[in-house]
From TrEMBL:
Residues 272-375 form the Ig-like domain. Residues 20-63 are annotated as: Disordered. It comes from the Eukaryota. This is Platelet-derived growth factor receptor-like protein. It comes from Catagonus wagneri. One of its GO terms (cellular component) is extracellular region. Residues 1-21 form the signal peptide.
Length: 375
């Protein structure tokens, strides 16, 4: 009787566990409240190490972005290539992003104050427009932004743009020159350039001597050809002097350039080499004197003269005449002699004293003096 009673109680207990769903599965322990339900795994995972950019190397070379675009037809635009070839007569419009844009373009357009060129600054970009283009407009067009602190501005090297444009014109292989015969000075301490530039990118250009007639090779050592400049003499010397010209060939056509007289300059570049000489250093009242200031320099180096003399404050009338000429010294060596002559007539006592001449060129200035006294 007791056995049947115990068996009945056991069956009732198992039925209650099935109803409540709390019967623990076999071989598994019940989970504690809040225990992580993700099954643990023994799979090994290789940790990923994030790549760290070298900030120093990135900052040491700032990126330069081109700010120039070329406007095309129907409102389209594109970044211009380093070298462009356009047909003469086309309108060129370039824009550079920025509110303070400076432009550089072929000096030819500035020399003649050409009205075909227009440069404007808008709120967000600078604009350069060239209409009725010709072969003579061939050259470098560039722009850059400015970094300003008050009224002091400097060029922003990180925001620039440039393109070299060849304007191709029928019958013109060379960029036209205003003169058919130009002088190129050969200075021993700087490069010399024979400016034979072409308007056709594929043109073959050679350099020739007129007498004795022969081709001068651009060997890359003494002479090189630069499309943007012409034939460059890297180390000029007196053997290079003479008359030369260039020859271009393209598309089965050929053309001869103007002629260039190469003159060797004896005097090295630098501030003016100046001397001063008075016609007399001891004078009498009523005499006339002349004071001569002379500079020997580079053939193409212009010189400006300034005078200080005793009667300057009293506005004593004097005559000043400036002149220059080229002189040949020795084996084809060419020098420019520049002179300024100050003349005083009918001397008075206020004319006695120091006569001071200052000569100035692009490389500096030199001051010399002499005295004039009454005997």
């Amino acid at each position: 009787m007791k056995v049947w009673l115990l068996l009945g109680l056991l069956l009732v207990h198992e039925a209650l566990e099935d109803v409540t769903g709390q019967r623990p599965p076999k071989n598994k322990r019940p989970k504690e409240p809040g225990e992580n339900k993700i099954k643990p795994t023994n799979k090994k995972v290789k940790p990923k190490i994030p790549k760290i950019k070298d900030r120093d190397s990135a900052d040491s070379t700032p990126k330069t972005q081109s700010i120039m675009i070329q406007m095309m037809d129907k409102g389209r635009f594109q970044k211009p290539a380093a070298t462009l070839s356009l047909m003469a007569g086309q309108t060129l419009e370039l824009r550079c992003k920025g509110n303070k844009i400076v432009w550089s373009y072929p000096a030819y357009l500035d020399t003649f104050k050409d009205t075909r060129l227009s440069v404007k600054q808008h709120e967000r970009y600078g604009q350069l427009t060239l209409v009725n283009s010709t072969a003579a407009d061939t050259g470098e067009f560039s722009c850059w932004g400015q970094l300003c602190n008050g009224y002091i501005c400097r060029r922003d090297e990180a925001k620039t743009g440039s393109t070299y444009i060849l304007f191709t014109e029928k019958g013109e292989l060379f960029v036209p020159s205003p003169s058919h015969f130009d002088v190129v000075y050969l200075n021993p301490d700087k490069q010399a350039v024979v400016p034979c530039r072409v308007t056709v990118l594929s043109a073959k250009v050679t350099l020739h001597r007129e007498f004795p007639a022969k081709e001068i090779p651009a060997n890359g050592t003494d002479i090189v050809y630069d499309m943007k400049r012409g034939f460059v003499y890297l180390q000029p010397h007196s053997d290079h002097q003479g008359v030369v010209y260039c020859k271009a060939e393209a598309g089965g056509k050929s053309q001869i350039s103007g002629k260039y007289q190469l003159l060797y300059a004896e005097v090295p570049s630098g501030p003016p080499s100046t001397t001063i000489l008075a016609s007399a250093n001891r004078v009498k009242g009523g005499d006339d004197i002349s004071v001569l200031c002379t500079v020997l320099g580079e053939p193409d180096a212009e010189v400006e003269f300034r005078w200080i003399y005793p009667g300057l404050k009293e506005e004593r009338p004097v005559t000043i005449q400036d002149a220059w000429r080229l002189i040949h010294r020795g084996l084809g060596h060419t020098t420019r002699i520049s002179q300024s002559v100050l003349t005083v007539e009918d001397l008075e006592t206020i004319d006695a004293g120091y006569y001071i001449c200052t000569a100035q060129n692009l490389r500096g200035q030199t001051t010399v003096a002499t005295t004039v006294e009454f005997s």
